[in-house]
User: Fold this.
Amino acid sequence: MGRVAIVTGGAGLLGSWLIHTLASHNYRKVFVLARGKGDITAKNRVFDALKFCRNGRGSFWKDEAIQIVRGDVCKAHLDLPSVTRTELLKQVTDVFHTAALTDLNASIDLLRQPNVTGTENVFKLALEANRITKHPIRVHHISSVTVAGDSQGWFSENQLTRNQHFHNAYEETKFEAELLAIEYRKRGLNIEIYRPGIITGDSLRGVTSNFKTIYQPLRFLAHNLFKIWPGREDAILSLVPVDKVAEAIWLLSEAEKPPNGVWHLVNTEETSLDKLIEIGTAVFECRRPTLVPAEHFDSGQFSPSQWRMMRPFVPYLNYRLRFSATHTNAVLNDAGFRWPKVDENMLEKLYRYCAKAGFIRARYLGQQPPR
Assistant:
């Protein structure tokens, strides 16, 4: 019969790429849960997001495997009408939960609604599917390596609680969602957790619809906003292109559940902040900032507005934690999967797309489209 998936967060960057990947492979049907936004319908939001996966082509609606369902993870039963929910759950074999709010400045109360309550609503729906279908549904929960918080050294696939503290409410709510996953496993739910590193634009063109996380410091760099940064040259960044993350999730969803139920989606080749800046200064023809480790940095050098801009990124500009992915990489290697090399060519694609999309103002970049 083939597998049938529900994907939440279908209008997001990773969600749209995951839909594209599942529908392109062995999934008979992919139900995409999305909500409208303002005057934009749920269908149009997903449609616009999927264009990024097909190089701007809008032919996705010809794919019979894709069906958009209006819903909201923050509401009970995902705000699905009873009849719609029952018909959907009769068919489903897998649930991919990508919906989340990624905002490093948001309050804990604001983030808990989508990231924790929303996750629990998805788990409850999967339990309902178990009862209806009489067979265990596989739930694929997309978390983040940031659940490690301020841990030091190495963080493995079988670790979660290390008495860590969190740099922001986003990290904390993703951690709380993983605790929920553990709780719902005890209730009989088959949950696998995926912890990606820093998700970037796709590996072929550098295209993204989400200019958060690492992209904000790139804008600071290109626009020469700060002469000095609170960061370390040897800060460690695991950059993972969104198309490869989606491919890895699909491949791992086909594999046997890992021993601890956790997959680490981190690039085997780490990138340093020094490398990111070195190539950025060459591409953007901008000034290289002086880097001062956070523990020696005087925030009084910045105005209050400057510090508000920079402060959310300080932990990641000083990141020293490494993530082991021994089991994950073994399974991916057996499937023929390789993370792309984070070299000058790849970084240039990411940087040049920032200019092409208007996120970064760089005069000459508009004449040099992404390769």
